[in-house]
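Reviewers of the previous submission asked for a worked example of the structure-prediction workflow described in the proposal, so we include one complete record here. The input consisted solely of the amino acid sequence. No template or homolog information was supplied to the procedure at any stage.
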Amino acid sequence: MSSQHILVVDESHKDRTALSKTLQDWGYHVTTVSDGYLALKKVKSESCRLVIASFETRGLTGPEFFEQAKSENESLEFLFLSADASVEDAVEMIKAGALDFLVKPVDPAQIRLIVKNVFESNGHRNGTAPQKQKTTRIVTGDSAMKRLLDLARQVSDSKASVLIQGESGTGKELFARFVHENSRRRNRPFVAVNCGALPESLLESELFGHEKGAFTGAVSRKPGKFEMADGGTLLLDEITEMAFHLQSKLLRVLQENEIDRVGGLRPIPIDIRVIATTNRDIKEAIEKKAFRADLFYRLNVIPIKIPALRFRKGDIPILVQHFIKKYNEIDRRNVKSLTNEATEKLTRFPFYGNVRELENITERAILLSDGEQIQPQDLLLDEGFEQDGVGTEDVQGPPSEMMTGPLKTVEKKLIFQTLDQTNGNRTHAAKMLGISVRTLRNKLNEYREKMDDL
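From that input alone, the workflow returned the following structure tokens.
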């Protein structure tokens, strides 16, 4: 039986068949059933790692099916789908230990990311042998970036905490993985948590875990991300989005090297290396009493500040060639390079979405290109950036001053353009912008407050 085995449970034949075909196209072994009782039989008789189930499962309620299946195999992972479940249902199941709770119709990209994470988690959840890790490659010709990579290699074997700062899309998680893969911990888990993606109540359980019965819906014991990363590295992405009281709990973990599960009776010792990232001005957050100064000093033992792409324009052609090679293979194209005119146009573009935005533009251009070279019109760049007089040559000052003055105006324009493209869907807009939904919400509140002051 394949170790990448998924059980799909859905009363709807249409939904069940469509999801099964998609998963099989991605290379997974799939078993499908129409109700909860049949699903329990499959859990008992077949070896599967992930269950993707409709919350409205025939025969059993979602919580009943979850609890009984977990009692058969505690290492099972669950992803719930629903057309009309309440927010309370979603919160209850995620608190109980489900990976996520998605609303139908579901974006296949969301499912693919969750499924991929399950089967690339190095087997530390269910005792299987670790998979061979991919080596993270950071493409650059910039001297400042090379110095940062040298620093990352130099400190990789220490246990010292690392704080990586930089705008969205600059590659903060890549740097975190680079540190991990160059350390003695490289064969142990690398676990990432986005602190801005979950509400405060769920983030605490996600990080520290909980005991059975710790709160309503806690139908089984759930280890937290700290325990899952034991012996390896824990990445706390968007650390400045963490609630203040959780910051105190995190500080204690860093000081004592032990965690307390929610509802637990005794502390659990852990051995991890913590890497934190943020795209915000963390010192400003400290001044506003939104972030603890003592936690900042504990995290900032090794500081890494990644410069924005517009401050290292020499990397643009290098990165484009890297992405051309990557997406030629994925999309089965045969693009060789950019024309000189297209290269010049890219180097004038400000790239407020940084490397992530450049990658998206390059992939799109490859798909639109009719020949072996990408033409300027294939890039589909927003000419308004240059017309507004905020090209990269106009940006002055160090990276710490990047988002002041006219750049704030461009940032606001980009956010509202993206919201318009997604018909106001904040989740999709945040994904396109490379920020969390919480960060997007904070930005919109900021703009609203400024309007109220006028």
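Residues 122-133, 384-404 have pLDDT under 50 and may be disordered. We consider this example representative of the routine output the project will generate in years two and three.
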